[in-house]
Amino acid sequence: MSDLTNRSRKILLAVVTEFISTGAAVGSRTLARKYGLDLSAASVRNVLADLEEAGYLKQPHTSAGRVPTDRALRLFIDTLVQARAYSPEEQAKLGQRFAEIYALATDPMREAGRYLSELSGTAAVIASPRTELRALSQLRFIPTRPGQLLAVLVFSDGSVENRFIQIEEVPAEPELTRIHNLLADVIEGRSLGEARDLFARRLADERIALDALRRRAFELGRRATADVNRRGGDVVIEGQGKLIDLPEYTDASRLKKLLRALTEREDLLKLLDKVIAAGAVTVFVGSEAGELGEGDLSLVVAPYTEHGRVAGTIGVLGPTRMDYAKVMPLVDATATAMSEALGGRRGSS
């Protein structure tokens, strides 16, 4: 907000704060009365007009007060970069709850989403771990018939994926044992995607001399991992009713945009992929969220890890007047608690 005077900045932050609290257009009398500005309503109106001209505010109707634009909300959020973090006691309480969820719940992702929805008062969004980011524990090959192997991929979370591989000659049992031992050393500590890339690099690099056993092992590894779904997982949304019940969605056109965003999830998936790449708490405000909700929604989301690697995302979806000061540290703390429950630590990848 370097282009604003101290007075303009104070009034703009007051407008944003009031709008987040009420969801209604903010008038000069309200600002002068509630925010200790030591200015007359007329003086406040002049500043509001200047802020509107600068693109920070807009007026829904000629006689109405003003509401912040996405630009104003973004600047407000940027002032919260140093927002209050959770205390060690609060983080421990959150961590204990997530440990219970992942130890006892039959569907921990949905239960985690419901819990975050209760804490935030709006909808929670969780992207399940993408297959290629999950830690690979074992890779085994089982002969099934002449010319065919069953590749068994075992992940560190205990899940298993199988696929059949057609080959000219099935290795004898002693050779398969050596292949399994060799691959165990190669995949240790690697995600599926990392192992897949390693197999491809080793086979393509002519400078690396591979004996017959290694070449066969890497070729089998490459074929076993090549076509595993790169997106994997899904998006879980909990607390949709809390979101729909918010006052702004009594308007039929806004409700229609919201329902479209909740059911057609491709735009949401694209945003969540960006967060995985960023590796930190990210806020998408209104138009920054692209087609999601046609500029009428905000998303606060953070990555969580599984055994130290970024595996998915968790966050909050709500209207642009979201309580960012509350939600940003909540999402950050929740992602940390979820990572610890999955046996990882945020930021250690």
UniProtKB/TrEMBL annotation:
Single GO MF annotation: DNA binding
UniProt record, GO biological process: negative regulation of DNA-templated transcription
Entry-linked Gene3D superfamilies: 3.30.450.40, Winged helix-like DNA-binding domain superfamily/Winged helix DNA-binding domain
Pfam family, one: HrcA
Residue ranges constituting the Heat-inducible transcription repressor HrcA C-terminal domain according to the UniProt record: 109-328
InterPro entries: GAF-like_dom_sf, HrcA, HrcA_C, WH-like_DNA-bd_sf, WH_DNA-bd_sf
Keywords assigned by UniProt, alphabetized: Repressor, Stress response, Transcription, Transcription regulation
Keyword flag Repressor: yes
Keyword 4Fe-4S: no
Taxonomic superkingdom: Bacteria
Alphabetical list of NCBIfam families matching this protein: hrcA
HAMAP family in UniProt: HrcA (MF_00081)
Family that this chain belongs to: Belongs to the HrcA family.
Protein function: Negative regulator of class I heat shock genes (grpE-dnaK-dnaJ and groELS operons). Prevents heat-shock induction of these operons.
Protein name: Heat-inducible transcription repressor HrcA
Lineage: Bacteria, Pseudomonadati, Myxococcota, Polyangia, Polyangiales
Gene that encodes it: hrcA
